[in-house]
Structures are given as C-alpha cells and as structure tokens.
C-alpha cells in the first residue's frame, strides 16, 4: 500500500521542515499545496522532494484540502498541518493498519502540546483514497461528513482508532496562540455555516467552545445544549458536555458544571480523550473542599497518562492543602520533569520548600519561576520579586 502525505500551507517556513522530516520516511510521496506564501515555504518543501502546487485561497479550508487531494496518487492519505509532527514510534502501527483491506479511516490520537484544557484529541487524518471521501466545512474542515455518507452506501468499510499518541500539535504553545483577529475570522466562518446547518452537533460544539474563549458564556451554553438535541456521536457528545462544564463553571454554577463533567466522563471514548473533563472535575471539587475526591480524580489522570504534568501539579496542590508537604514537593518536581517550562509548578515548589525550611532550594525555585514568568507573565514575575523583597529574601 502506497501512502501519500498531503498538506496545505501558507508562510510556514518556521515549522515546515520539522513537519516534513517527521513523515518523510513513512510517506511514498509528499504533496504540498501552497495558498500564497511569501517566505521560504515553497523552497523548503521542494528541498524535501515534495510536489508543490499552488491554489488561490478562497477562505475555505475544505476547498483547499480537496484541491490538494486532487494531486494524491497513493492508496492512503495522511494529512498534517505545519505545526504538527508525526510521532516516530507510531509509524510501524500505521504501516500495519493500512494493510487492513476493510479499513476506510484510521483515527489518530493527537497530543495538544501546551493546551490549557484537553491534552488529547482524536482526528481523522489517515484515510483510504476514495472518490467519495472529501473535506467539508470552511473552518474546522473534516472528512467525517463524507465518511458517514459513504458508510451508508458501502457499510462493509471500517473506521478504526489507533490508541497510542500519533501526532504532536504545537499550535497551543504560547508563541502560537491565535490573536483576536483570527478568532473573529473563525467565528464569522462558523456562524455563517451554522445559519445553513443549525442542527449540526459538531458545529455547535466547536462554535460553543469558541464562545467560551470570547467570554460569551450564556451564548455558549445555549448553543452547546442545542447540540445535545441532535444525536451526536460519543466523541462530539463528550465535547458538548465538556465545554458545557467549562461554561457553567465560568458562571459559577457549580452543580451544573459538575453534572456536565460527569456526563462527559461517561462517554464511550478513549480514556486519554477524557483527561480534560477528569482534571477539570477534580479542580472543581478541590475548590469546593472535597480534597479526597479531587485527589482520586487527579490520580486517575496520571494512571491514564503518566506524563500529564498538569495532573502532577494539581495533585501536588491537593496534597499541600492536606498538609502533606513532602509529597506535594515530589509531585511538583514530577510536573517540572514533564514540563520544564511550568512556571506555576516552580512557584508552588518554591513556596512549599520555604514552608519546609529549605530556604536555599526554595530561592532557586523562585528564581526559575520568575525567569519563566518574565517571558509570558511579567506582572506575576514582578509581584513575586516584590513579595520576596518584602519578606527579606534575596534572590
């Protein structure tokens, strides 16, 4: 089976080489559709031996992705964005999975590096080249609509999941956080699509989540609850409940928020995809004083993903609140081990070490926290400096 790698790009010179390097050993051909780059994007793609084609941007990701599919010749198609990397260890599993004669789509687990919320998602980025499989939706483009229609006509096909992490997505890193202009463009595109598809549960989930980002919480809740009325698949239902949990928590409706998180956790999806809801429910309960149940939820997170830095941090905070300072220190250190840029973990470690009388180690942790905060949160860095000065502590 020949595997084609396919992507659309525009001004991705900073990321493209790493992306292409991650797939070049697996793919039999590289297809790069450029939508108007003015930097070195095209030259970088050509250095990797990619076939580079041009496409005039139409403000529809689906149209661009479908145009790229036109140039694919392989039996299977793998799609990544420039800020994504294929995990090397997943390649043998992909090679084996595409030998399955009944497989139509192989969903891949994507790790959202630096995401404030759900650290994992499931994406339909590996699929058989079939004339009926096409991308739809101008924003958050997906093949799922065409796959659903195809399965109704040809039910012999299978949609499979690989449970191991396959893709690393760096789009949530601090340097890559989208600005308000991009959020506005996304909202405009999705609201326009919603006008013609008011009963689309997936769209309700994505647009509802965006409304949370723009602090339109009541509007988010209305849309997310509307999405639940239209028989969403388990993954979409999880997202609807999960984002409802966030929206209700922002409005301080704790009872509703807890109910939504619990409903999300009950969905029959991969356990790694539930980490956001489990972690958020733990934080909700910790804020309400239920430290024992919060600790159990954080421990569940770490069983699911032993590299989940936020889980170690939150469990450390819970242990500190119960007076288990040595254990709290150990968990903060684990959080830092898995995320060396975790300023809050260094800060909490410093405070706890100070309580334990380990002044030298505490000041070293404070210095690291201040250095990290200075990069992304200068006000917090200055607050820490002043606080330490008032305590008579010199860095």
TrEMBL record:
Residues 4-156 form the Glycosyltransferase 2-like domain. SMART domains: TPR. Transmembrane segments: none annotated. It comes from the Bacteria. The keyword Repeat does not apply. The keyword Disulfide bond does not apply. CDD domains: Beta4Glucosyltransferase. InterPro entries: Glyco_trans_2-like (IPR001173), Nucleotide-diphossugar_trans (IPR029044), TPR-like_helical_dom_sf (IPR011990), TPR_rpt (IPR019734). TPR repeats lie at residues 201-234, 275-308, 309-342, 343-376. Keywords: TPR repeat. This is Tetratricopeptide repeat protein. It comes from Pegethrix bostrychoides GSE-TBD4-15B.
